[in-house]
Amino acid sequence: MAISLEPTTDTWIKATWNEYLQATENPDYTKAKFYYNNGKLRIEMSPLGHDHACDHSIITLAIHLYAAFNKIELNGHDNCTYHKTGHKSSQPDLSFYIGKTANAVPYGTSIIELDTYPPPTLVIEIANTSLADDLGAKRLLYEDLEVTEYWIVDVKNVEIIAFTVEKEGSRRIRTSVVLPNLEIALLEEALRRARQSNHSRVSAWLLEKFQ
Q1: pTM
Q2: Cβ contact 33:44 at 8 Å
């Protein structure tokens, strides 16, 4: 049974797991992002413009630099798909396996099946037009998937809303737990600097801060 979806609605609709899978195979949604939770499907077709892309780049850079300087084992994923088969699916902007699970997913893996592999340690959504959903339904989804930490980068307000996930819930933090002693305020400052300067100069500033 096929389903008819408006690609511009960016909202949650009732759907079965099979209907979700059919949607992911639809060529009209080649560039879409997919989420599935509690019998509901969300397809995001919003164009990702300059501001979203720049914040995505800076946050990725900062995390990799911090991990390298602090000798933290880490592997990152960009727009990777995670499945809890038959129940849940997500495609976060950024996700990282950190520490003892850094090498948990081998090369050659396509969709990461969470029935086989552990969930990512840190998940990040870059929110330009999707802030309410990232704070609400997606936050519940990542709690259910048992990620350890979840960040939302609020592009318009140059703010990072970070949560540690514990006991089937989450609470706000201002210092990362999975990247020890990394202050969220420092990352916010990097985002502000990127609005006034180029990424090479922001990189140099981050290197100085992390050394």
Answers
A1: 0.92
A2: yes
